[in-house]
Amino acid sequence: MQVKIIDHPLIQHKLSLVRDVKTGTKEFRELLEEISTLMAFELTRNLPLEETQVETPLTTCTCKMLSGKKIAIVPILRAGLGMVNGIVKLIPAAKVGHIGVYRDHETLKPVEYFCKLPTDVAERELIVVDPMLATGGSAVAAIEMLKAKGAKQIKLMCLVAAPEGVAVMNAHHPDVEVYVAAVDSHLNERGYIVPGLGDAGDRIFGTK
Ligand code: URA
């Protein structure tokens, strides 16, 4: 299965705080941003480096710097927005695209309602972000849309996944690596991840 659980102690500690029903909007936002930064650290582990000459106060030495691989972050609206700033802190030159999909109540099929991407999407590595990988419907649809627009290298970064969502992602997009902080027990009858953290969008934006 193409899922990598990032179980760093700092991430697990912050995730427990995020799950807590007593955690308010301000703290929830801050924690989600911090976890996103820590997860992005792991996601970018294999970024290519190139050698360069650096003059230190003492001598000249051969050092390594990022070779300038182009990255774009693509939050799935709206909850994915809560993860963007945490990644941009680490990769300030990243472009940010946006994609919005909703589920049609009658057909139950995902419908794209917004998509704005960098023009050179085919040359960029995309980090698609959404805190909750529940049924997998939105992520699968969003990634299908990104591929249709030329995207070739895609990673998906979520906070919490349900096993059902991971399986659906893997079945539809086996080429996409999925990074999560936890895979929870199951989905309930209303499509919520259990134990989960509730509705991520509502908790980020303070809505109900
Ligand atoms: N979306 C959420 O925000 N929470 C869930 O538990 C499932 C989907």
TrEMBL record:
Q: Which residues form the Phosphoribosyltransferase domain?
A: 6-207
User: What GO cellular component entries does it have?
Assistant: cytoplasm
What CDD domains does the database record attribute to this sequence?
A: PRTases_typeI (cd06223)
One biological process term from GO is: uracil salvage
Any one Pfam family here would be: UPRTase
Which pathway, metabolic or otherwise, does it act in? Answer: Pyrimidine metabolism; UMP biosynthesis via salvage pathway; UMP from uracil: step 1/1
The cofactor remark states: Binds 1 Mg(2+) ion per subunit. The magnesium is bound as Mg-PRPP.
Q: How is its activity regulated?
A: Allosterically activated by GTP.
Signal sequence annotation: none
Record keywords: Allosteric enzyme, Glycosyltransferase, GTP-binding, Magnesium, Nucleotide-binding, Transferase
Residues involved in 5-phospho-alpha-D-ribose 1-diphosphate binding: 78, 103, 130-138, 199
The residues listed in the UniProt record as binding uracil, with positions renumbered to this chain, are 193, 198-200
Look up the EC number in the record and give it. 2.4.2.9
Q: Name one GO molecular function term.
A: uracil phosphoribosyltransferase activity
- Cofactor(s) listed: Mg(2+)
What enzyme class is recorded for this protein?
transferase
Function per UniProt: Catalyzes the conversion of uracil and 5-phospho-alpha-D-ribose 1-diphosphate (PRPP) to UMP and diphosphate.
Looking up PANTHER family in the UniProt record yields: ADENINE PHOSPHORIBOSYLTRANSFERASE, URACIL PHOSPHORIBOSYLTRANSFERASE, CHLOROPLASTIC
Q: Could you say which protein family the record assigns here?
A: Belongs to the UPRTase family.
Protein name as it appears in the record: Uracil phosphoribosyltransferase
- This protein's species is uncultured Sporomusa sp
Native organism taxonomy: Bacteria, Bacillati, Bacillota, Negativicutes, Selenomonadales
Q: Which gene encodes it?
A: upp
